[in-house]
Amino acid sequence: MSFLTETKGKNEWVEWGKAIFIAILVAFFLRSFVFATSIVEGESMDPTLQDGERVIFNKIIYFIDEPERGDIVIIERPTKNYVKRVIALPGETIKIDNHVLYINEEAYEQNFIRQEALNSTGNFGPIQVPENNYFVMGDNRAISKDSRNGLGMINEDDIIGKSEFVIFPFDQWSITR
């Protein structure tokens, strides 16, 4: 075996090592700062998200933009993260009266939830959402712990991402909306 062949073989291993190292760094960067996964626990987001589904959420979007009504967001709390839907924005007034959701005195159509969920939503408010806070609810209103009953208003800093895709179970891959 010649010196040239031996050097070429070592260089090839070094190049492979560099490529693997760079790939690991890119994956670590993406996982830490851009995308992460979360597991849906419970049925509070049914029918949109099911118990046990794993979602990919975008961690960087709210550094360049603000949450919008309808976004499915990941909320960080000390004991666990919650997956909920943004219903009212900072400064808006929310009220639920006779199973109808009103935002700033205008009825808001909730086409993302089942009729039974609409019918199980009790009266609430009116209440104004403070600045830098959001009012969130689960899509399964009857059993959801949300801004009405336990989570309270969600500070903008507690929203750590926007749910983008369901990735597990594999047969249920979808975009979350």
From TrEMBL:
UniProt keyword annotations, A-Z: Hydrolase, Membrane, Protease, Transmembrane, Transmembrane helix
Membrane protein topology class: Single-pass type II membrane protein
One Pfam family from the record: Peptidase_S26
Keyword match Transmembrane helix: yes
Subcellular location: Cell membrane; Membrane
Organism this protein belongs to: Virgibacillus byunsanensis
Catalytic activity, as annotated: Cleavage of hydrophobic, N-terminal signal or leader sequences from secreted and periplasmic proteins
Residue span, Peptidase S26 domain: 13-167
GO molecular function, one term: signal peptidase activity
Stored NCBIfam families: sigpep_I_bact
Sequence intervals crossing the membrane: 20-40
Stated family: Belongs to the peptidase S26 family.
Major localization class: membrane
Enzyme class: hydrolase
Protein's name in the database: Signal peptidase I
